[in-house]
From TrEMBL:
InterPro entries: AAA+_ATPase, ABC_transporter-like_ATP-bd, ABC_transporter-like_CS, ABC_transpr_LolD-like, MacB-like_ATP-bd, P-loop_NTPase. One of its GO terms (molecular function) is ATP binding. It comes from the Bacteria. PANTHER family: ABC TRANSPORTER DOMAIN-CONTAINING PROTEIN (PTHR24220:SF692), IMPORT ATP-BINDING PROTEIN (PTHR24220). This is ABC transporter ATP-binding protein. CDD domains: ABC_MJ0796_LolCDE_FtsE. The lineage of its organism: Bacteria, Bacillati, Bacillota, Bacilli, Bacillales.
Amino acid sequence: MIRLENISQSFKHHSSKIKILNHVDLVIQQGSWVSIVGPSGSGKSTLLKIMTGLLKPDTGTVYYRDLDLYRMGEREKSDFRRRHIGFVFQDFKLLPYYSVLDNVILPLYYDKKKQELYEKAKMLLLSLGIQEPLFSRLPNDLSGGEKQRVAFARALIADPDVLVCDEPTGNLDRENRDHMIEILRSFNQQGKTMILVTHDMEVAAYSNCIYLLKDGLLLPNEVNV
Ligand SMILES: Nc1ncnc2c1ncn2[C@@H]1O[C@H](COP(=O)(O)OP(=O)(O)OP(=O)(O)O)[C@@H](O)[C@H]1O
């Protein structure tokens, strides 16, 4: 279970401070699929960063079961994130001077035997529709949709319990988007927790729960699956 308690966050804009998140609480059950929707600039990516340990909020706490994420040391927190949380960023954050394959193995580079890791990375990439000729390419020589699938493979390489995706279908054409939805569903069916930010209501419709983030507040919106 992931629990956010009393999260507030402001950012400075010129001389004033703008409150993006205003005392946000959220509980996400293990194995559930939660989608967060809301207008552009409402703070969705900021909330994802806070719940994954990338941004310490002005106030509030984030718990993974009983572990308080922001009470961990930097090293402990980054190990925890690497092992438990896969994150697909909106802009992918692939390293430009590393090949596709090397980008995918990065989270486990120091943990596992390279041969084993490369085999797993190849299988993941193939399952996501990225074929062998692309394995040695640099990210800048990929299409947006291909980059996105490589970012997915990197997020999944460590078998995380939680997959966090910022706009997972944003760069995909219809066929690839439908394929991505199948991947998300099968991941969720394995009992993994999914947290998505999306503008795509068809994708959000697969969630157990949709939340609207607006004016700093997170409003629940239960749906049937
Ligand atoms: N580090 C920062 N410093 C200052 N302002 C920031 C920072 N990060 C985000 N913001 C601002 O906070 C607001 C919320 O940003 P955020 O990226 O979380 O929104 P979003 O809902 O994900 O938007 P989109 O749907 O367009 O991706 C925006 O106005 C953004 O400019």
